[in-house]
Fold this sequence. Notes:
Blueprint: E1 2-3, H1 5-10, E2 13-15, E3 18-23, E4 28-29, H2 31-39, E5 43-46, E6 55-57, E7 62-63, E8 70-74, E9 77-80, H3 84-105, H4 108-129, H5 144-152, H6 154-158, H7 171-193, H8 204-227
Parallel strand pairs: 1-4, 3-5, 6-9
Antiparallel strand pairs: 2-3, 6-7, 8-9
Helix pairs in contact: 3-4, 3-7, 4-8, 5-8, 7-8
Amino acid sequence: MLYSEENVRANIRNREGRRVFYLQSGDTLTPSARDWLQRERIDILPAQSARPEFHTLENGAVFAEKPEHYTHLRGNILVPKTHPIIAFRGAMDSLQAELLLAQQAAPEHLRKDIGEILTLARNILRWDVLEEPAQLDKLCGLTPAQLRSHSHFPQDHYGQPHFMPAYTDGPALLQLNRARCAARTAELAGALAFTDKNGVCLRGDLLQALNRMSSMLYILMIQLKAEK
């Protein structure tokens, strides 16, 4: 397989607190992918070294083989598939599926913005798995303050007031609405996954990114409605 920079970014892993990329024998990297790994100081390791010799539960118990009803949380740490963070990651997978369909259904001039939102969704998953802080200054060219203003006062910015979607709005707008709902669902799953027993949110940065994402999706709905 030939790994592009996009493929490499999607397959970065965390090993003992550092980012690594596992390369299978016979696979190759494009020059841009190799340059990106070097700039980011990410080690390239042989794929066979990725398999842990043992699996550890959060309570410290050790398994030689992974039980079917468990999955990896990070590294070789296993948790039940019902774990809230695994449910959050499932919600993020569903969100990406909805965004792809929205991008397919959208008019050409909106596809770039939806693609940027899709990249953000993929980054949120990466920030969770690698325990990295979220990095989001602007989304589709809008600052957080602009996102709030455009989504709260669409009449001022687009000449289109708030509205309730109807079946007559067409597939592109309705698919954007599905993606917006999926972003809200993922945000709620994240709130459950990252709030500790004392009510403290441990990954407010991820929830904030999801909140801005749903605002941007609503803004795209407004733009599409205004054009019609």
